[in-house]
Amino acid sequence: MRAPFVVAFAVLMASSLMAQSTAITVDGRFDDWSPVLTMHNDSDAPSSGINLLSMQVTNDETNLYVRLNVESEIDLLDDLVPQTIRLYIDGDNNASTGNAAQTGYGAELQVRFDTRTVTEYFGASSNVSWSTLDLVPLPTTTSTSFEIAIARSAKPDGTNFLFTSSTIKILFRETDSGDAMPNTGSTFSYTFDEAPVPPVVPIPMTRVQAADLRVLAWNVLGDGITNPSLQGQYQRMLAAMDPDVIGFSECVTSTATAIKTRLDTWLPIGGAGWQVAKDDFDMVIAARWPIMQSWPALTRQFAAFIDLPATLPHDLLFTASHLHCCTADANRQNEADEYVRFVQDAMYPGGAFTLPENTPMIYAGDLNSVGYQQQLTTLLTGDIQNNATYGPDGPMDWDGTAASACEALHTHARLAYTWRSNTSAYPSGRLDHMFYSDAVIELRKSFLLRTSIMPPTALSANGLNPTDTESASDHYPVVGDFFFPTAAPSIAAKCFLEGPYDATLGLMHDSLRVRGLIPAQEPFSALGLAPMNSYATLNPNLLNVPGPDAIVDWVVIELRDQSSPGSVVERRCALLQRDGDVVSTDGGSPVPMASPAGAYHVAIRHRNHLGAMSAAAINLSGAITVDLTTSATATFGSEARKNSGVVELLWAGNALLDGVLRYVGNNNDRDPILLAIGGSVPTASLAGYESEDINMNGEVRYVGQGNDRDPILVNIGGSVPTNTRIEQLP
């Protein structure tokens, strides 16, 4: 991540900031908005109404991204909480053209969020569709922060490009309160950065493990699943997704029999075929295995107890959902409260029915999640709002904690919206969700299917046409793959990285965490070391934990074949703490593996250190400890680790992640450090999460105290620069 070069100068008290291109994932979360990105903080507060606090701006090759922060929780796309927030963009950086929204601005575009009105000002003004901007604002529920994507190729009037200058001006106004950002008399400029960002890592539609349980939730828009003109689209998509359990909604007139007939034809499984049940509204549940019991009386929610195969340790409670739409917040909240009561009744004896302990629960569907965020909070945490009617609050998972959300993204874009209609007054939104009980099952991968953005090679490989999803429904399918971690071994590993290790403390430092640089999503997929839990994310709250359990960085654990240790059987990303503990992405548990119990070599790897592997295959069954910080654990090869007194460290310096430390020559690890800081001024430095940051202090330095070049020379011998050190992994 590159730190911005900032220049401030006065023109109408203007602030003009050079840009920093960034790979932003538009998902309604904000962990990828680094503090170093271009920011404007509002300096005053209105006496009443909504207070605009700050905005951040960045871009990539295709989009402009704007993050808006306000003081109190609002629904950006409605006036649920009274607000009149407007965004103005001066796309040609010319105050004499467009709408004179404020002194110094000639805006070609106004977006009024509360009425969902987009107005262009190229000559005579006119209101235009959101789709002309390819605009995506998330979240679609109440929040104090929102991220907005606008296509850099946008032509609001169908003719004129919005962005015709490399520098643009941006303004927010809240007309009820009179607040403006920036204030009257000032302007805020942003200059696009054309430096490329890392490309999107496609999410393959195939399962990582054939035994994973694949769940699909899909609003099929007005009985599309049985519409004769759409049979080809649905057959192709269902065959490509190949689900085990399905929750369909908007099947108002489609019968369970009609849907079973189609599934048996499109996805034949033999025997009695697909098991299909329908509630009294519009929801259908289909499964490859028997549906032992169902509960259709839940309001706009349909639960079923599914008899999973004997190879899995538990059966499944699956609930399909289609909550009330649009402005019916009270209805949605009652429905969420009702479901929490249903789960509490199911988890504890004494109710109408009781689930076997540790039965996994998955809840998925079109939740119409607009309006208040509390509805989603209730479904995840069990925080009932109407306790008088629905009883006391209760946990939504067997370990007494909240359920987890499946944060699915498009297979070929950093986007998380699940609904889109170019003819609607509403822009694209994330209305569909999947929640699960992570105490007993783990999410392996997830994705949203939108065929129109998939490249031809991916479409062909999956037997899809580019128009399939858009012609079938205005909702995109949500897919999650799950496995049972209790059925597989887990590893309580330990290692020290040389770069951040402090021999005096016997701990690693956590400068990357302190400086807010550790990415929320694992970095290895983008580096070519895709783990089985690709796209795994950490809970941002973990980055607030100090002390020995503070997070240092992401690492990878590999299981390698007993007889052929060069063959990687399984690779999983995990988190490394200051005391050397390698923990799961929950921040404390051993790392669950999906491979069956057996003997494996265990390796640990990092993005700029040489990896090391156990010399002997270790019998994995249940929870096993593998400690690479001690010489008592023999490692494969010769000098696989660096000795530091009583502990062993992973060698630092592999900036290229190619398994060889080189100081000079082709593909050396020294030159990337110089290039990272600019290539010509050795005393320059670069702040960020960089592979060239060998000592992992959050800053790349080529010379001077604490530089990242010297450790490479030391680790190849210190005196012969042509020496190399080779990673001891076969």
Can you tell me the overall shape?
Answer: globular
Structural class: mainly beta
Q: Helix fraction?
A: 10-25%
Distinct helical segment count: 10
CATH-level-2 architecture of the largest domain: 4-Layer Sandwich
The overall pLDDT average reads: 93
Walkthrough of the structure:
This protein is mainly β. It has four domains: 15-191, Immunoglobulin-like (Sandwich); 213-486, Endonuclease/exonuclease/phosphatase (Deoxyribonuclease I, Chain A, 4-Layer Sandwich), CATH 3.60.10; 488-649, no CATH class; 660-726. Helix content is 11%, strand content 28%. It is built from ten helices and 42 strands. The strands form nine sheets. Strands 26, 29, 30, 31, 32, 33, 34, 35 and 36 form a nine-stranded mixed sheet that branches.
